[in-house]
Amino acid sequence: MNESKPAGQFFDAAIGLLRQVRDEEGEHIAAAGTLIADTVAAGGRLFAFGAGHSSLPAQDVVYRAGGLALMNLLPVPGVVGVDVIPATLGSALERVDGLATTVLDSSPLRSGDLLIVISLSGRNALPVEMAMSARERGVRVIGVTSVGYATGTTSRNSSGGFLKDQCDLVIDNKIAIGDAELTVDGVGAPFAPASTVVTSAIMQSMVAAGVTELAERGVEPPMLRSGNVDGGHEWNRKVMTEYGDRIFYRR
């Protein structure tokens, strides 16, 4: 592909970010894998949360072929995706104080569990409060965010802090403020965001680290297989029956 073309430029930018995260955040990703392995081995449950487009990387590790069966989405009505009408409502809900605590009050999250909170800016009330309130309940919290926002923007949380300030472990996705990799004359705003590509890779790498560490400890991790290969549905039914007390995406 011609690197001077916008498509090639975007691929180059995304690859560069992936390499930077691999090289600079590798120890933190390995530590996240250890937290995942510790939680699974101790009988805890795994949850992931993100609002708006930050929900996409969270969803990417839940109920999927090749995924860890114990990873659950922690949903907040109205903020999970752009299917809510108007879409701007989701952005507004992220700025509402008290919403995260209310959600956790009715969630299955309990002491000993692990919650991954994804927020690109890490500045809004919902993700910051989600991490803070979860830790108060004895839940370990991993934050996946762009640390750069904490020095280039102001907090929208009543605590005055950012997501990075309320976590047991932080992984920086290295995304620049504004989340847009390209500019072109005649286009009034930067475009081509890479946060979903990079953050999804971080999520998969964390799970891979956790799965591998469990195997090294002699603990077989409960994995899901593709339903489109022979025997896949039968395998998944067995796994979800055996670990049904830690899986919340099925009845």
Automatic annotation (TrEMBL):
Please give the Pfam families that the UniProt record associates with this protein: SIS_2 (PF13580)
For this protein, the record's InterPro entries field holds:
RpiR-like_SIS, SIS_dom, SIS_GmhA/DiaA_subfam, UPF0309
Which top-rank group of organisms is this from?
Bacteria
Domain named SIS: which ranges? 36-221
Task: Identify the CDD domains for this entry.
Answer: SIS_RpiR
What the record says about family reads: Belongs to the UPF0309 family.
Q: What is this protein called?
A: UPF0309 protein KN815_29065
Per the UniProt entry, what species is this protein from, by scientific name?
Streptomyces niphimycinicus
